Amino acid sequence: MSYQVIVPKPVQKQLDSLPKNLRDRAIIALRSLAQDPRPSGVKKLKGYEDTYRVRVGDYRIIYKIQDSELVILLLSVGHRKDAY
Questions:
Q1: Which of 20, 24, 52, 66, CA to CA, is 20 to 30 A from 78?
Q2: Model pLDDT for residues 39-78, shown as the tens digit of each residue
Q3: Architecture per CATH, 4-79
Q4: What is the 3-state secondary structure (H, E, C) of 6-73?
Q5: Tens of pLDDT along 17-49?
Q6: What is the pTM of this model?
C-alpha cells in the first residue's frame, strides 16, 4: 500500500531554496513517507486533524495524511524557527 505524495508549487519552492545537502535528505524523507506515512519520530501536531511533522536536521516537513485516498499533502518545509 503506497501513498501518493503531492508537492504544491509553494512547497516545491521551499524545497528548492534549501541547501543542497538538506534538500537531498528532505527528498529521501519524502520518498520514505510514501511507504510509511507515520515513521518513527513523526509527531502529530496538536490542534490539527491528520497533520504531522517529521524532522530533517533543523528543518521540519509538515504534511497532512488523507488515508481514505492514500494521499500525503505537503503543507510546509522550513527551518524549525519558521515552520509553525
A1: 66
A2: 999 999 999 999 999 999 999 999 999 999 999 999 999 9
A3: 2-Layer Sandwich (3.30)
A4: ECCHHHHHHHHCCCHHHHHHHHHHHHHHHHCCCCCCCEECCCCCCEEEEEECCEEEEEEEECCCCEEE
A5: 999 999 999 999 999 999 999 999 999 999 999
A6: 0.91
